[in-house]
User: What shape does this take?
Amino acid sequence: MTRPTWLDNVAVDVSAAERLPTSVLDAFLRSWDGAYGCAVCTRAGNARRDPTTVGAVAEPGGHQLWFAHRACRPPDEPAPVEGPPVATGAERLRLAVSGFTRPGAPPASLVLTVRGLGRRDAGGGDTVDALAATLLGAGLELVASDWSTVELSPAAGWEVEWDDTWVVVRAPGGEAWYDGPWDPPAAWGELAAGGAVALLAAADLELRAPVGALDEALGAGRLVGGAVAVRRRPPH
Assistant: This one.
């Protein structure tokens, strides 16, 4: 995915750099239309013309992105933790995972999604799926046939580490795409004992109904996945 030249206008605040995986933030920025409401002066801004700062505030289950004109927020000024809603329409990014099993499917599956990072208008009638493009660049593959029966290729460098309350999904290079609580299905651990699980991912999946959500993403050509290494976290 080519990096838009106007992103040279955008500076990433440490609040976003520390709280969001770099790859997720980069995918959002690549697909963003640049419009926002300044969290300091409240006036409309557009990163395609205005020097802009972007940051993130952690929320339960996700992150609230904020944007400000660079001139409104000097580098040494504290980040605006509370402020007016930003005007992008995708200002909240929520990373989530769900483990599940299904007869006939790969032995154990882990589904990863980023809410608020769906397809966006790329101009000229084209759309871009920034999450899929980012994950394909990180070694996952486009799932082009029935995800419940296809044998996924090994995704080198990806790793899942889990216990009964916590799971970490790491991309090549060690970046944690998800590092947080979860509730694995009862049989998931036994089926994952073989050392690999199927990692499936798409933007804006409804994880309360993963089978239907995956089928929909497959039909839309935006489901990616791979067979990734898995190990149980040692007891603390």
